Amino acid sequence: MRFEELKAGSKVFIDANIFIYHFSGISEESSFLLERCEREEILGFTTTTILLEVMHRLMMLEAVTKGLVAPGNIAKNLKSKPEIVTELTIYAEQIQKIPEMNINIVPITQDLCFQAVIWQQKYGLMTNDSILLAACQEHNCRHLASNDSAFARVEKLTLLQPMDVL
């Protein structure tokens, strides 16, 4: 299903890659989806886990883009040079824009973690993906925006993928 096919008033959970594509400017479709959430045309959700993942990835992307570290083991390079992390500001501004887009951020609870284990065992999903799926179920949401094809295996879930990202 394409992002523009999502009916007004629908709920959609949003995976980290959609935010990364938007903030890095590589997917107009991802930006369009987030604009629909901002206009409250559709109801957007994500989890605190996804928020942390986006923050981490945007921080690393900023460090590479500014030439402060080389591509490769970026996290290790940043960990060994904390002074570089203190110079990074763009990722912090970007992450704060997510709630301004009317994205509801779902907290991770103990119960959600236990539900995630069930999804991991049923579909072979990684931890963050299974937490996202458990949150979808908890909020009675059948739509997930992600470029992760692992979610295509999940029954009773409609995966929305940006078509402008290879």
TrEMBL record:
Positions of the PIN domain: 10-153
Gene3D superfamilies to which the protein is assigned, alphabetical: 5'-nuclease (3.40.50.1010)
InterPro entries for this protein: PIN-like_dom_sf (IPR029060), PIN_dom (IPR002716)
Lineage top rank: taxon: Bacteria
Protein name: PilT-like protein
Record organism: Thermacetogenium phaeum (strain ATCC BAA-254 / DSM 26808 / PB)
